[in-house]
Specification:
With 289 residues, this protein is of the alpha/beta class. Helices cover 53% and strands 13% of the residues. It contains 12 helices and 9 strands. The longest helix has 27 residues, at 176-202.
Length: 289
């Protein structure tokens, strides 16, 4: 049980975190801070927060934990705003999809508070956003990665771990660099590809006609292209080095498939498809998602 939680960005992730902790009886008061008064009103209506604040200094006063659930492009500004007003015991964590840049921002803006800074990334989400999309069950059985820095106090890391476990999540730990390399491959690249495909089809002169014939395969492949453009712009730019490496590897694979197709090498194509199908089926069977 903590007395006071402050959530910056009471959207899908921040709102779900608040609702899950409230349902678990793990927090007495939840304060929400955000740019949209309408979203904060929705968070209040749904019981995700007890009150809304517009002033960062007032919001974090006496807080036991602060969650930064804003787009990574806004993270530095929030850190700078709250840094002078944090109590010594306040634990600060985040929900950003990239970690190397968040750690760097923490070193810059939370230099005097690094012992109580615990970067984290919940591996859960949806193409919908805002407090209206939040749900207490979002993190049940999902992975959350924490990436403590060398300066992070073990007790602070344990508190963040316990909060996510109270949400029903499984908590894993790795370095920020390892995190960004892993998620460039299995999260950031797929989003980039989905956005690219939909944009390419939509930009054609007969795009509307093409969409009229698209069915479940296209829908499933491109579902994540319905995600927040602002958020994914920031993620791609923040993790651009690792993402560029993954994009190069994917382009090499596409070139291989193109050569097989041009050469009418059906056997080679089938081997790739069979290997991919087996790997995906095993992943689903293992429930690693």
């Amino acid at each position: 049980m903590i007395d006071k939680l402050v959530v910056f960005g009471v959207g899908l992730i921040g709102g779900s975190f608040a609702l899950a902790l409230r349902q678990a009886g793990a927090v007495r008061e939840i304060v929400g801070v955000g740019r949209s008064s309408g979203n904060l009103e929705e968070a209040l209506r749904r019981g995700a927060i007890d009150r809304a604040e517009t002033d960062a200094a007032t919001a974090v006063k006496g807080a036991d934990a602060v969650l930064l659930a804003v787009p990574v492009g806004q993270m530095g500004g929030v850190m700078e705003a709250i840094a002078p007003h944090l109590d010594a015991h306040t634990v600060v964590t985040d929900a950003g999809s990239t970690k190397g840049d968040v750690v760097a921002l923490g070193r810059r803006y939370l230099a005097a508070h690094l012992t109580h800074f615990v970067p984290a990334h919940p591996i859960a989400g949806a193409e919908k956003s805002g407090a209206a999309a939040a749900g207490a069950e979002l993190f049940q059985g999902r992975n959350v990665v924490i990436t403590p820095t060398p300066e992070t106090d073990a007790a602070a890391a344990s508190q963040v771990r316990a909060l996510w476990q109270a949400c029903g999540a499984t908590v894993r730990e790795m370095t920020a660099q390892a995190h960004d390399e892993v998620f460039a491959a299995v999260s950031h690249l797929p989003h980039l590809l989905a956005f690219a495909l939909v944009d390419e089809i939509a930009s054609r002169a007969n795009g509307e006609e093409l969409f009229s014939y698209a069915a479940s395969g296209f829908r499933d492949f491109t579902r994540i292209a319905g995600s927040s453009p602002e958020m994914w712009r920031d993620i791609c730019l923040a993790n651009r080095a690792a993402l560029l490496k993954e994009l190069d590897a994917y382009q090499a694979q596409i070139a291989r498939l193109r050569a097989m197709l041009a050469g009418e090498d059906g056997a080679a194509l089938e081997r790739v498809f069979d290997h991919a199908r087996a790997a995906r089926n095993q992943w689903i069977a293992d429930k690693r998602y």
